[in-house]
Amino acid sequence: MDVILQFIIYISILFMTYCIGSYIEHRHFQSIRIRENQTRDMMVITFSQTPEEWKYTSTDLVCGNIVISLDYFKRFLAALRTLVGGPIKSYEPLLDRARREAILRMKEQALSQGYDAIINARLETSRLASSGGDGKGTSGIEVLAFGTGLKLLG
Amino acid sequence: MNDHELIISNVETIPEKTIVEFYGIVSGSSVRAKHVGRDIAANLKNIFGGELKGYTELLQESRNEAMARMKEQAKSLGANAVVNVRFSTSSIAQGAAELFAYGTAVRVE
Amino acid sequence: MKADPRLPDDTVNVSQTHPLKEAIILLIGIASISTLIFVIIAFFVNITAPLIPYSVEAKLLSLAWKRVEKTMDTEQKSQGVNLKNLANRLATHWPDNPYTYHVGIIHSPAANAFALSGGLILVTSSLLESAESENEMAFVLGHELGHFRNRDHLKALGRGILFKLLISAIGLSSGANLGSLAGTAELLTNRSFSRKQERAADIFGLSLMHQEYGHLKGSDDFFNRLPEEAYNDSSIADFAGTHPGTQQRIAELYEFAEGKGWTWNGPLARLLPQNHPFIDFDGADASLNSTLVPTAKCGQLHFHRKYRSDGLTVKSLVSTVDRYGKCQKQNPCNRSSWLLRQRARSAPARPRVSCPRGRQFYIPTDQPASLLHSSSV
């Protein structure tokens, strides 16, 4: 009986983490969409050279980062997926959220410093701690977005 | 607009064309894993070194999908080229590779 | 060259598959693949395991036995010797018996017995405590002997080893939090023998009973005593569908015995540690020729020396033992402490009521047997 009980408890914990995790994810996406619309006028490009037509006065490094982690259910799902192979879909929302949030923070920093555009934007992703093993480790990923903010003339 | 018309470049210019409009960053990402049998084989191979064919394949598949997604985003903006494309690979989970491609969506003429 | 910041399609990088749907598909898929792998491994093991030579098993035994023996106390050791003799006695009815049996006793709240390689049988303390007759234990041991004869223990061992290897291989490469899931799956599949194996072992045990005692009385006691839902690991095993239900097993025993024309009626033998005198705690028995008479008050056992003088019965208190077998009081004339073990500790203590019939109490060998109502079975 014990094993079945444990199993049921395990499944309910999984389901609970799924519900809470999805709610948090949904809220985050909503907030990202709103803020992306607010900051859409800020131009971000990956060029290392400033386009010739752009006249600018000052530059500075701007960056934004985020450390984010996945809920237990989706980690479990990812672990199942690694057994059979194929695209690990449960990680996709996490990475998407992380990148967009990092870019947003970079843009927000640039805005607060009065810049109009960001050039040479770069994104870095790294695994924070062990997401493998028995699931006990903190499984965060860090996304860093950085670029050069420009103050445009005219 | 189809793939053939979408120009991908990892420099900032495209020969004989000029950039007329910037649309901003576009990106594509893909996380993939190989099935556990491949993982075990790769673990064994790791002892002696050499190419881990399974993982080479895995990363290539991932990269292709990430590129496809980036192109799709660019198309959704009405761009006809993505310039200054960068790739980054990161290890998200054990045995899984994450490929990320990003660049600037532009319109060239 | 002008800047026209636009927001790209933000659904491209996120698959629209519902995670729950994916989880269900994956779980069903993986479960069916694992089942397939299990069946293949079990098939493979069932063919190869019986080919393991007995000499290898003997080596495995000496390792396992040393470990088990360490955990047993003196009393358990003496019980183990008793059961070991019983098992080897039963084995004389099996002409090709290749083993010399050892019986270890392990602590466990679940009444159960296990067959390990090389003729090692493990009996849980709970099973031993609840057993009321030698016949009952003999059937349990006979059943395990049946597993040995069919080499089921090796099949289980082989399966266990292969599964451990497989799980660790998967664990090494994929890591992740599949440990608990794999553990549960292992529990579900590893320990249980198949329905067919259990039935074969039951029938072998029954035939040993018939040859040893000439009757089958007591063989079904083990099953009858267990609540239907609590048969050893059967909550798991029934779940996995491999363990015959208790009632069904009893029915099959009756059916088989009927087919052979074996009788279920006969005297029950007493189960007692090797060379230990015992007192049968029963008012009727005690009034016979015993020189030492136990009486019970408030869950305590009082031992009186009883002797006759001029036709009168005189009692003198020798020792009091509580129902947990601890010595409470001692008469100076009683030299050593009397460690008594009450078989059914769960029996509620009732004042002025003597213990129910058939309860037995063990007295260690350092007591002169002449003091006690000694009985040879």
Structure, explained:
The complex is a heterotrimer of chains A (154), B (109) and C (377). A four-stranded mixed beta sheet of chain A has the order 1-4-5-2. Chain A starts with a helix and ends with a strand. Chain A is α+β, with helices and mostly antiparallel strands and 154 residues long. Chain A is built from three helices and five strands, in the order H-E-E-H-E-H-E-E. Helices cover 46% and strands 27% of the residues of chain A. Chain A has a single domain, classed as Hypothetical protein apc22750. Chain B (Translation Initiation Factor IF3, 2-Layer Sandwich), CATH 3.30.110. Chain B is an alpha+beta fold and 109 residues long. The two termini of chain B are 15 Å apart. The relative contact order of chain B is 0.32. Chain C is of the alpha+beta class and 377 residues long. Chain C has two domains: 41-260, no CATH class; 278-371, no CATH class. Chain C contains twelve helices and eleven strands. Chain C has helices spanning 19-48, 54-71, 74-91, 125-130, 134-149, 152-174, 179-190, 195-213, 221-225, 234-240, 246-260, 283-286; strands at residues 2-3, 102-106, 113-116, 120-124, 278-281, 292-297, 300-309, 312-322, 327-330, 341-342, 359-362. Chain C has a four-stranded antiparallel beta sheet with strand order 6-7-8-9, with no helix packed on it. In chain C, strand 6 (292-297) and strand 7 form a beta hairpin. Chain C is elongated. At the A-C interface, helix 1, strand 1, helix 2 and helix 3 of A face helix 1, helix 7 and helix 10 of C. Strand 3 of chain A pairs antiparallel with strand 2 (19-33) of chain B.
